[in-house]
Hints:
The chain has a two-stranded antiparallel ribbon with strand order 1-2. Strands 3-4 form a two-stranded antiparallel sheet. It is globular. The C terminus is likely disordered. By secondary structure, it is mostly helical. It starts with a helix and ends with a helix.
Amino acid sequence: MANEAYNTIIIAVVTIFIALTTGTTALRLWTRVIALKKAGWEELLMLAATLLLVTNCGAGAGSLKLGLLRHTADIPRKDLIALGNMINIIIFVYIPAIAFTKLSILLQMTRIFIPIPRTKSWWAMMSFITVNMLYYFSDFIATFVACFPRSKNMAHEVPGMCTIWTQHSTFTGVFNVISDFTLLIIPMFWISRLHLTTGKKVVACAVFTVGVLACLSSTTRLVFSIKYTVDTSVDEMESNVKLALCRASEVTAGIICGNLPSFPAFIRHVKGERKTSGMIEVDSPRIEDLQHVYPSHPEKLPEMVFLAEARSEVV
């Protein structure tokens, strides 16, 4: 009965994850592609991340029938190998899902806050993007070769070798915590520089504060990883389930956080209003217009574009 109750809880959780991510992604795609006709790479990446998360959650729900919540020793060998394959799918789908999610968010932040390329801020953002993508690529390769052959992941009697996966999970957890908190701080820093009232800054920051949930998920995953590294008596299946839920919740929070900035534009479009900043109707700034306004201060051009673009996009 306990397993049936846990099965119900897990299915309910992954159903909520799927509903929230597909719903917000659909709303974002409608707003950016159909309403505003301004779709970019970040929309395509977020769509891919959402589909990967749905696959991840589907594999997790399907593995319940194979004994995901049972002790490893109680699972028949046939089901154990099949369950190992499902866990492999969950792990390998998670890495590109979180990578695409973060890349989409970072490209979105670049578009909103750093519209002029090759400035110091732009290079800093590109460096951060590069570090994240190189890490997730190397993590994917490291995960792939962690067990050879892959069937040894769940069937320990199979000849071969496996790295200590809990230590690997701890290392990746540390990186994700640092990356997630950095993603949370970046928009707050740029919004704090806008020429807006405190109230409007709070509203703008609130759009990005869902990232706190991603930080909590990655932190929880790190805590569990450290716990399972220290306490080797914990059943492997129990640790797999908890870490998988943490990974799925991290991706879910990231997708929602990346989609929320499109909500104000969606609301304005539904109400039939143009893009506004406060009570003043504005359009997206053009670089040539700002060059005409500030011909004697070309060094201030990136800042002027940032202020105008961010005001029209965020508020």
